[in-house]
Amino acid sequence: MATKKYTVTLPEELAEAIRAEVGPGGFSRYVTHAIERQREQDRLGEAVAWWEEEYGEATEAELAEAEAERREIEHRHAELARAQRVAAGEPVEVTPEGQRGAAA
Q1: In DSSP terms, which residues pair with 63 in a beta bridge?
Q2: C-alpha distances out from residue 6 to 28, 62, 74, 88, Å
């Protein structure tokens, strides 16, 4: 991707905190990533607005169902990752809830 230099104004404390975190040469990459994420959020907001205009706002029951599905998918991914660690011979530990987890 071609790049071009732009001048932007940022609060000094914020810019210096980012520079301290990302080190030399990482500032532009960090800012680029932040702008890309914001654009993604903007597009998502537009999609949600369109969906709600077409189909109405999501009900509490629909939101709860979507959250339960998200948790289930997250759980399945965690279990798959654990199984892959076991298959690779990596140690796993038992968590306080009695579930197997990755060794720290």
Answers
A1: none
A2: 10, 44, 40, 47
Residue 8: Cβ within 10 Å count:
7
Amino acid letter for position 13: E
Q: What is the pTM of this model?
A: 0.61
Looking at residue 24, what DSSP letter applies? T
The residues pairing with 92 across neighbouring beta strands, listed in sequence order, are 102
Handedness of CA 89, 93, 99, 102 (dihedral sign): negative
Residue 60: partners with Cβ closer than 8 Å, 6 or more residues away? none
The neighbouring-strand residues paired with 100 are: 94
What is the SS3 assignment for 15? helix
Tens digits of per-residue pLDDT, 47-96? 999 999 999 999 999 999 999 999 999 999 999 999 999 999 988 876 66
